Each structure stands twice: as structure tokens, then as C-alpha cells.
């Protein structure tokens, strides 16, 4: 996951394999949401336990990022 942005820096901007920065950040957001979905599915789907701990840490990170960006 970290290798994609680093490899993208080595490819010139006009090259066919160059991925725009917006697409890289969007894929990072998608992977983050997918990781949350898999974690909740494993805990709730297989164990039958509804846990709000994943959502609490996810919300706390979103709140902290929002406060950081508002400065």
C-alpha cells in the first residue's frame, strides 16, 4: 500500500503508468474503509459480537483530522 505512492513518484507525470495524486488518495480512503468493514465483519459476522470499538477509534481519528484541518 505504501509502495504505490512511492513508485508513483518515480514515474514522470506524462507517462502512461503515472497515477494522479487524487486517485492515490482516493484509493487510500477506499482501503481504509475496506479495512474497517473487514474488521467489523470478522467480529460481528463470525463471532456474533457487536463491537463499537472499531467505530470509536475510526470516529476519533476522523474528528482529530477534522480539528487539525480546521486550524
Automatic annotation (TrEMBL):
Keywords: Membrane, Transmembrane, Transmembrane helix. GO terms for cellular component: plasma membrane. The chain crosses the membrane at residues 53-70. InterPro entries: LivM-like. The keyword Ligase does not apply. It comes from the Bacteria. This is Urea ABC transporter permease subunit UrtC. GO terms for molecular function: branched-chain amino acid transmembrane transporter activity. The keyword rRNA processing does not apply. PANTHER family: HIGH-AFFINITY BRANCHED-CHAIN AMINO ACID TRANSPORT SYSTEM PERMEASE, SLR1201 PROTEIN.
